[in-house]
Every structure is written in structure tokens, then in C-alpha cells.
Structures
1.
Amino acid sequence: DAKTTQPTSMDCAEGRAANLPCNHSTISGNEYVYWYRQIHSQGPQYIIHGLKNNETNEMASLIITEDRKSSTLILPHATLRDTAVYYCIVRVLLYGQNFVFGPGTRLSVLP
Amino acid sequence: EAGVAQSPRYKIIEKRQSVAFWCNPISGHATLYWYQQILGQGPKLLIQFQNNGVVDDSQLPKDRFSAERLKGVDSTLKIQPAKLEDSAVYLCASSLGGSTEAFFGQGTRLTVV
């Protein structure tokens, strides 16, 4: 079972920041937080991951709370192409560990 | 860099028939995953390979599903015989090693009628 809890759906206005929350209250000290997204009819796409420090790349920013029990994925300027299902996953970086997906958050970016 | 290639993209079969899916991972990626995604749900792992060895197949219905990864590169997933509940998208993913991010193919959409 997935170890994360996410809202079922969210809306965001085009051009505004999209803030997607994830709760992982039972996260272990050696588990990383990963975010993937899945655009309709495509395979999941890796976005970003982090352990405890905030991370930023060309796609998004990941903010992890100090107690690591929750995190937020931020898309700074959402476009219509960001409409997708976003998955938050916690995972240990060890041999043999796979990615356990929950139902994710369906983000709709509205014009 | 070429991504994960899967074929076919779509397949329709009758129940009790057999079907096979093919996956070519990103060059040099040692870890290969097969996931099943039922409509409206997140992907669920079926089997994970490290090179040509199986790391995890605990959720693979072994009475009807089989997978192989000969020579540690390409992989095939087979269903024999298919059931209606096997209708889903079958996703292949690969990663450099078990601890790095995985890259997914576009998937094969299977419809069993």
C-alpha cells in the first residue's frame, strides 16, 4: 500500500502557482520523497525527489517540512500542459526497492 | 537519448486468448519494471528485474502471467489465458540501478473482450 495521502483533485488557474500537498506522516529517516506525473495516455514522468532539504529543478520545486511528515510540490507557473495526475511516493534508495503508486492528485489547469 | 520503447501500443483480444508485450529499456539501464495500471488507479508493480534476474515478482499472478528478460536487455510480459479483469495499461520502466529514478514507456493498452 502507498504510504502517502494526497487530495483526489485540485484546480489551478493558468499562469498561477500550483501547490500540490502530500502527507507522509509515517516516513522513515532513510526514505526519499519522489514526485511523478502522468499526462493522459502517457506513462508516468519523473519530476523531482528529495530527502529533507528543499529541491528545485527546471520543472518544479519540492518543499519538505522540517519533521518530514509532509511535502508540497510547486509548479511555479502552471500551464494547460501541466494538467495531469500527480503522484507522491516515498521510497528507500536501496537495491530492490520499487515505486509504490497511490491514486495521486488529478490537477486541472484552467484557462 | 531514446526512451523506453514498448509495443504494441494497443491490443484487443478475447478472453482465454494469449498476448505478449515487449519492452526495450533505455540503453545501459540494469533495472526493469513491469507495472499494471487499471483505469482510475495508480500503477501497480507486477515484476522487477535487475539485469536478467528477478528481484520482486510477489504481485505477479503466476498462474497466468509470465515475464522474462533474456540477456538483461529487452523484456517480454505474457498473459495466458487472459481474463476480462486483465484489461489495463501495461507499463514498462527502467532505471540505471535500483536506487535511481525510473523512466516509463508509453504503455500498452490491453482490452480483453
2.
Amino acid sequence: EPEVTQTPSHQVTQMGQEVILRCVPISNHLYFYWYRQILGQKVEFLVSFYNNEISEKSEIFDDQFSVERPDGSNFTLKIRSTKLEDSAMYFCASRGPKGYTFGSGTRLTVV
Amino acid sequence: SQQGEEDPQALSIQEGENATMNCSYKTSINNLQWYRQNSGRGLVHLILIRSNEREKHSGRLRVTLDTSKKSSSLLITASRAADTASYFCTLSGNTPLVFGKGTRLSVIA
């Protein structure tokens, strides 16, 4: 069964540092998403990406965040100048004809 | 975006019992999906039911959909400790998927 792969599984970073979370979507999927889940809270939509551009983003996805598909296989989420409240699980998903597939997530801890 | 609301928020049962959780929504849908999330892990797609379907089965899972009442239910039969997780319903009409608070199921061995 095809999978969405996320790396790293756990990232610890100092407040103010930049982080890049990586995702490899399923190869024939065209729609890509990032979600986050703060500990004990709901899974929240961040951004969707199609045809090499952002198609929709939530209020959470401010100028601190950016997404990129640099090489046709990876899909990255960059967080500039991380804050303590950015600590969360970040999930990547891709969508194809049969629906969504989520990755196992990256646990980001900002200290 | 559309959101389903799961009920109850938490459910605790003995291993071997059946677990039923419900989802209500307010808008029209193309289909409804149920996902499972084990603690601290990713979201696993369980089952999709289309708006023209009333019931669907997958292994120990049975999903019903009542579009007139805008509600769905997920039944897990003969529950196991490994079924302990949070369960979410999501609506597909327009993307992206929106998740509610879910039902937190605890299956006690």
C-alpha cells in the first residue's frame, strides 16, 4: 500500500530557529496538505497545495510559514523563527482518486 | 469547509463489547469518511461512505449514513484493546478535510 512518508519523526529546535519538515507524498497524487495538532487539541488545517501553488490556507498559516515542492517528489513545510507555541505534531497528506492518505507526522518541539 | 461533530466525546467499554459513535453535520455532502488516530500517531483512513449509500461494512466496522438526519454512525463490533484510539468523521464536498474533536474510545482488556 502506498504511503506518505514524513521526516524527521521528531525534531527539537530552539526558539527563533528555522525548521523544515519534509514529506514525500504518494507519487501519482496531485493535491498536498499540511495539518498540525497541538497536544490535546484538534487536528487543524494549515495549507493545501496544487499545481505548484497554494490553493487554500488557514488563518494559522501566516508569514512565518511557507511550503514548497522543490523537486517534484518532496513537499516541505518551512517554519521561520519558531515560537514555543509552534510545538505540535505536523501531518502531511496527499490526495488522489481514492481519497486522502496521511503521513505518520513529525513531532516538533520548540524549546 | 464542512465539519462533522462526533458524539460521545469519550467512550469506555470492555474488550469484546461493541462500540458505537456518532457524527452529525449541517451541510450537504458528497461522502463522509471515518478516521482513526492512535495516541500521538498519524490519521488512518477507515472507511468512506458515499451520500447515496446507507450502510457499508469493512471487517469489524459498520458505518451507516442518514442524509435526511445529517448523521452517521460507526459501529466497531467485538472490540479489542488495539481499537483504543480517537475516531473522527470528516466530510468531503469541498476540500480540505476538517476534523472535529473526535470520540476517544478506550477498550479495557
3.
Amino acid sequence: AQTVTQSQPEMSVQEAETVTLSCTYDTSESDYYLFWYKQPPSRQMILVIRQEAYKQQNATENRFSVNFQKAAKSFSLKISDSQLGDAAMYFCAYRVNNNDMRFGAGTRLTVKP
Amino acid sequence: DTGVSQDPRHKITKRGQNVTFRCDPISEHNRLYWYRQTLGQGPEFLTYFQNEAQLEKSRLLSDRFSAERPKGSFSTLEIQRTEQGDSAMYLCASSQDGIQQPQHFGDGTRLSIL
């Protein structure tokens, strides 16, 4: 079974500081994609960043970067210079082949001014 | 790009009634997905379409659930004889073909069963 685990139900960070959200997954596949999605309160889910399993270089998107450890099946998200608008639920997701995505239970991020 | 739109945003109904939700994907996307999200959880996959063909259904999709995408554009998700446990947010997403393509989500339809 393919599962995604987010071990931190809630995290908080001071504005302008850095926070890391953890994600582990379980798969027997060798090629897959990993995604981080953000879901602000009462708003739609939007893509933050994605990573292909075959690429060793960690993906970065502005203040967002990942630490992808394929052997450990770990895919953490680092948010630098946190802003109030970063407050949201963050979901880690895994996709193999061309099918559906499997999501973790999410981490609720609070940003303190 | 008008995004993925879902209708209605909220639906309140009595147990035992039938409900139907609609999803309009991004126009150039040939893949369309339905997910269910309960409070405090991530989305759970229900089913997906490539064009008009329904290619996969989750075991979560009981025989009371049916989804269609008749012309490969919009999709409907119908729940018959609703139960309390059907209360959830129903999310629709669309994407282009390819494992690397991200799914674009709609705002969802929140279903409440009285």
C-alpha cells in the first residue's frame, strides 16, 4: 500500500523565521512525483512545489524548498522568511504512474506576527 | 484560465435524499479527479476520468456513488440515499496528461447530511 505520513498535525512559526514540515511516504515504485499543496482556510488547494523522484537536486520555488531523501523516503518542506499569508494546511502528496495522488493528513501551520 | 469550478459550494440535505454535484475543469485538461475530504484529513481519492472514460474507482466509491463525464468536459458526482457518513467536502481536480502534471483543485462542495 502506498501511504503518506505527516507526523506534525500542527506547527507554528514566527513571522520572518524558517519552518520545516516533515513528510514520509511508503512505496515500492522507483519513479514517482511528490508534491506539497497548501490549503488556506475556506479556500482551494494550490500547488506549492513538486519533486521528481529521479532528480537528486532538491526543488526550490522562491521561499519554498524541499529536502528530498529518496532512500529514507522523506520529503520535507522548508519555508523561509515566513509570512502571515503562509498560514494554511499543508498537504504532502505522492503520485505514481499517471493516476491519482495520495495525500497525507496535513499539517496546520500558524504564523505568529 | 478560469480555474476549476464546482457547484454548488454548499449542500444541506436530509438523510436518504439524492444529491448531485457538478465540476467544470480547466478547459484544456483531459483528466478529471474526484476526492473526498473530511475534517482534519487530507483528500481521499474517489475516481478519475481521462476524457469521458472513467479509468479508476476507489473502494470508497460505494454503489450509492456514481460519476459521469459524458462529453469529456464537465463531470457530475451523484450520491444516492445519502447517509450521515457522506458528510464531507467533495473536491474536484483536473490536470493535463503526465505524471509530472499537478492537479488543479476547485473550491469544493461541502455536503452536510441532517
